[in-house]
Amino acid sequence: MKKLVKQMVAALVDHPRHIQITEVKGDKSVVYELRCHAKDIGKVIGRSGKTVGAMRTLLGAIAARDGRRVMLEIVE
């Protein structure tokens, strides 16, 4: 799933080399901390947070099949 997050973000940003994703695993949950170039944060968040919201919805649906929870956080 980490690879999926990286592919989605890389398609949106101008500086894909600056993408860093940290995976923090829990018992039944996973938190992905996303770091990217400062100029690309707005593109990842989207207007009114719609882009990042869509990514979170997609990840949540995939994780729900396995009975897990996934959270995507953008770290500046």
Describe the structure.
With 76 residues, the chain is α+β, with helices and mostly antiparallel strands. Strands 1-2-3 form a 3-stranded mixed β-sheet. The chain is globular, with a radius of gyration of 12 Å. The longest helix is centred in the C-terminal third of the chain and has 15 residues. The chain is built from 3 helices and 3 strands; from the N terminus they run αββααβ. It has a single domain, classed as GMP Synthetase, Chain A, domain 3.
Question: What topology does this entry show?
Answer:
Blueprint lengths: L1 H11 L7 E6 L3 E7 L5 H5 L4 H15 L4 E6 L2
Parallel strand pairs: 2-3
Antiparallel strand pairs: 1-2
Report the strand count: 3
Number of helical elements: 3
What percentage of amino acids are in beta strands? 25-35%
Percent helix, as a range, is: 40-55%
CATH homology superfamily name: K homology (KH) domain
- Radius of gyration equals 12 Å
Please name the CATH topology. Answer: GMP Synthetase, Chain A, domain 3
Order of helices and strands: HEEHHE
* Unreliable runs: none
How would you state the average pLDDT, rounded? 95
Shape: globular
CATH architecture: 2-Layer Sandwich
Short key terms for the protein model shown above:
single chain, 76 residues, alpha+beta, GMP Synthetase, Chain A, domain 3, three-stranded mixed sheet, 3 helices, globular
